[in-house]
Amino acid sequence: MELINVNVPMGGWVQVYDGTKDALIGMSGRYAHVCQSDTAPADNLIGFSLVNGDNRDSYTASKGSPVWAKAIIDPVIIIINA
After folding, report:
1. Which of 21, 33, 66, 70 is the right S-S partner for 82, CB 3.0 to 4.6 Å?
2. pTM to 2 decimals?
3. Segment 66-78, tens digit of pLDDT
């Protein structure tokens, strides 16, 4: 397993993981959306919500497609365990 931290600034979607393995995605910060897609999501897409760094909030990504994140209120750190 590998632990990866990715800083995500405010703004549009940012690719945070390449999807080479199944991964558990968490967050440190206030609020973000995540999405798994072969291409960058549209800016108006509402993804899976991660709120307040709550340890119960996580996203399980399946191997095969990249994972994207979008900070909603403030910059966040996306934590990937793959």
Report:
1. 21
2. 0.92
3. 999 999 999 999 9
